[in-house]
Write a structure and sequence with these properties.
The protein is an alpha/beta fold. Helices cover 32% and strands 18% of the residues. The chain is built from 26 helices and 31 strands. The strands form 8 sheets. Strands 22-26-27-28-31-30-29 form a 7-stranded mixed beta barrel. A 6-stranded mixed β-sheet has the order 6-5-2-3-4-21, with helices on both faces. Strands 16-15-14-17-18 form a 5-stranded parallel β-sheet, covered by helices on one side. The longest helix is centred in the first third of the chain and has 22 residues. Bound molecules: FE3-S4 cluster. FE3-S4 cluster binds next to α6. It catalyses: citrate = D-threo-isocitrate.
Length: 754
């Protein structure tokens, strides 16, 4: 048994009582999302009517899942906490680092060689700390989570944007950064902006070529890429219950494309069937016993406008297949209008590659529907016009699909089966004939921003369901409509593709020989974590030093950043991602994207020790080497964007003691606090203008530090004059302890050792 039955049982025992308690306080009916959220409040968090989109609330999720790219820094940090085991069931999934090139077997073998040090680290650290490890080739994080771990009414976080996939099994599953995973794995409270609620009422029933993917493609067109920001999308209505569990997961997965915090469906008989088919009858029985708590209250159905901030209605019976793109997932085209759009926009008509599968669309049902289309190519003597690839989401799905002849159908039309991994979905694709001209591909994945799949800015990527992608690959033209058009076969006859036929769950059951799971040691105390000291990609962390107990004096201004400064400006992604497990190496990108307010340039700041201009990381290193702390000054909403923990760890590593800004993005502010830095805001935002390029800075009042009490900053200017300004902070008592200890993890370690 892979799932933690005791934990699930505990959640189900507590859930009814917690929901009843919350309902009493709120004194109104509750949506499903609210039930799950209120049932997962962190101990001590007050129960009240939270202001949606405004209040930050502390939660205690049940599980953590990490993919191999983001897991590296999260686990390096976890090691600093001094714990012998993770506080909640956690898993690592090796899916992001496998390059798709020649097919599953060869690609996997190459990845095992190329990423050996990362895999060795992740498997040994998992083994030591009680974390389930899914080997390279075992499958894609979200598919594996759905098949093994997700459960109705649960709450989890995952270090990947498409974690909401588990909403298909009724779970509140949220994509986060590594720092959040560390919080939950160490047993700390996990903070979330209490989300707004968008209700999507589904009526009718899908038919013909329309599939669950088309529901979310349609929703993306309505909400656009920003429309779901800070909201949970909750699907309800009789149409919702008519969708398979894996279809629901596809819809939830792509909620990330509209910026939603997560998406969720209510527990129903389709979830029950999926739980049973994947060997979790005991979970289904438990869910069944409290099922009214795993669905919204009846009044919510009757009067949705009263309980959701926005309501969208979609009639599945009338839903057409959609094709979204290019370059953005919210450009939604109903199939009947697509050919016209291709013509009008002059998109390359020829389809060069069709790619199906991925974490979004590789369920058994998806593969059977696509295979039923592929099969027709042979039967109707059609020559397939485009290249075609299939990415199974897990070894279980792959093995079962092979057993049932589905992979044969794909291979018969020239399909290449890729490793059970992200591959082309994340840009890990060495595309054959990647042309230097406008060209079109169609995928059943979720994202289609420029360069996402093949790194080629001229590739127009369109997103559709696997069966639509398969039909288009056969036709080889974007102007084809399988619902109305015929194709000329090898005998010169006009033939038409029949509607796809799917099988929700395999008649002979799922099967797998080696699912790729490695259970951790019962007692990991003797397990050694493998990190090669020569590695450029991985480096063990050393704890940051504790506060010296006195005011900070003689700090140098590192940079006064002007305008937008997101976590991407602070810690750039792209080529730097290969160093995400090596703090010292990745710190060479510190603030290189930020604009210096004094010269309007990026990555060019004055080194006050030499008077010369140099790159930000180099200047920071120079101050650090001289034993001098530094200060970063910023503008409004400093640190917005992803919750990337590197953006807080790097300045700390390079000697920054305080970040003083007009305002912070909340998550980054908290991340700075956790790393033991001072996150401060100008009491008078106009004081930003008083900071000069050659300033030496004192921060006073730390010895009498108290929540709500401002600190004093003295700016010593080069001409000998000074400015004394007030700065505010939002530290509570507990957070100030993080500062004193040098970081939140230092504090946890002290407490674990106590
Ligand atoms: Fe993400 Fe695609 Fe992998 S969405 S988890 S990169 S398959």
């Amino acid at each position: 048994m892979l799932f933690d039955f005791d934990m699930i049982q505990r959640v189900y025992q507590q859930l009814p009582e917690r929901v009843n308690q919350a309902r009493k306080v709120l004194n109104r009916p509750m949506t499903l999302a609210e039930k799950i959220l209120y049932a997962h409040l962190y101990p001590g968090q007050e129960i009240r009517e939270f202001q949606r989109g405004k209040d930050y609330v502390e939660f205690a999720p049940d599980r953590v899942a990490m993919q191999d790219a983001t897991a590296q820094m999260a686990l390096l940090q976890f090691m600093l906490a001094g714990k012998s085991k993770v506080a909640v069931p956690s898993t690592v999934h090796c899916d992001h680092l496998i390059l798709a090139k020649n097919g599953a077997e060869q690609d996997l073998e190459e990845a095992l060689g190329r990423n050996k040090e990362v895999y060795d680290f992740l498997s040994s650290v998992s083994n030591k700390y009680g974390i389930g490890f899914w080997k390279p080739g075992a499958g894609i994080i979200h598919q594996v989570v759905l098949e093994n771990y997700a459960f109705p009414g649960g709450m989890m976080i995952g270090t990947d944007s498409h974690t909401p996939n588990a909403g298909g099994l009724g779970m509140i599953a949220i994509g986060v950064g590594g720092a959040d995973a560390v919080d939950v794995m160490t047993g700390m409270a996990w903070e979330l902006l209490f989300p707004k609620l968008i209700g999507v009422k589904l009526t009718g029933k899908l038919n013909g070529w329309a599939s669950p993917k088309d529901v979310i493609l349609k929703v993306a067109g309505i909400l656009t890429v920003k429309g779901g920001t800070n909201a949970i999308i909750e699907y309800f209505g009789e149409g919702a219950d008519s969708l398979s569990c894996t279809g629901k997961a596809t819809i939830c997965n792509m909620g990330a494309e509209v910026g939603a915090t997560t998406s969720v469906f209510a527990y129903d008989h389709r979830m029950r069937a999926y739980l049973e088919a994947t060997g979790r009858k005991e979970v289904a029985d438990l869910a069944e016993s409290i099922k009214e708590y795993l669905r919204p209250d009846a009044e919510v159905y009757e009067n949705p406008e009263k309980y959701y901030d926005q309501v969208i209605e979609i009639n599945l019976s009338e839903l057409e297949p959609h094709i979204n793109g290019p370059f953005t997932p919210d450009l939604a085209w109903p199939l009947s209008k697509f050919a016209e759009a291709v013509e009008k926009n002059n998109w390359p008509d020829k389809l060069e590659v069709g790619l199906i599968g991925s974490c979004t669309n590789s369920s058994y049902e998806d593969l059977t529907r696509a295979a039923s289309v592929a099969k027709q190519a042979k039967e109707k003597k059609l020559k397939v016009q485009a290249e075609f690839t299939v990415t199974p989401g897990s070894e279980m799905v792959r093995y079962t699909a092979e057993r049932d002849g589905l992979l044969d159908e794909f291979e018969a039309i020239g399909g290449v089966v890729l490793a059970n991994a992200c591959g082309p979905c994340i840009g890990q694709w060495q595309r054959h004939n990647n042309p230097d001209r406008p060209n079109s591909i169609m995928t059943s994945f979720n994202r289609n921003f420029a360069k996402r799949n093949d790194g080629n800015p001229k590739t127009h990527a369109f997103v559709a369901s696997p069966e639509i992608v398969t039909a288009f690959a056969i036709a080889g033209s974007l102007k084809f409509n399988p619902m109305t058009d015929t194709l000329l076969n090898e005998e010169g006859k006009e033939v038409k593709l029949d509607e796809p036929k799917g099988i929700e769950l395999p008649e002979k059951g799922f099967d797998v020989k080696d699912n790729g799971y490695v259970a951790p040691a019962e007692d990991g105390s003797q397990v050694e974590v493998k990190v090669n000291p020569q590695s450029e990609r991985l480096q063990l962390l050393t704890p940051f030093p504790a506060w010296e107990g006195a005011d900070l004096k003689g700090l140098k201004l590192l940079i006064k950043a002007k305008g937008k400064c997101t976590t991407d400006h602070i810690s750039m992604a792209g080529p730097w991602l290969k160093y995400r497990g090596h703090l010292d190496n990745i710190s060479n990108n510190l603030l290189i994207g930020a604009v210096n307010a004094f010269n309007g340039e990026t990555n060019k700041v004055k080194n006050q020790l030499t008077g010369e201009y140099d790159e930000v990381p180099k200047v920071a290193r120079a101050y650090k080497a001289a034993g001098i702390g530094s200060v970063v000054v910023g503008d409004e909403n400093y640190g917005e964007g992803s919750s990337r923990e590197h953006a807080a760890m790097e300045p700390r590593h390079l000697g920054v003691r305080a970040v003083i800004v007009k305002s912070f993005a909340r998550i980054h502010e908290t991340n700075l606090k956790k790393q033991g830095m001072l996150a401060l805001t100008f009491a008078n935002p106009a004081d930003y203008d008083k900071v000069q390029e050659d300033d030496t800075i004192d921060i006073l009042g730390l010895e009498s530090f108290a929540p709500g009490k401002p600190l004093t900053v003295v700016l010593h200017h080069k001409d000998g004059s000074t400015d004394e300004i007030k700065v505010n902070h939002s530290y509570n008592e507990a957070q100030f302890e993080w500062f004193k200890a040098g970081s939140a993890l230092n504090l946890i370690r002290q407490q674990s050792n106590a």
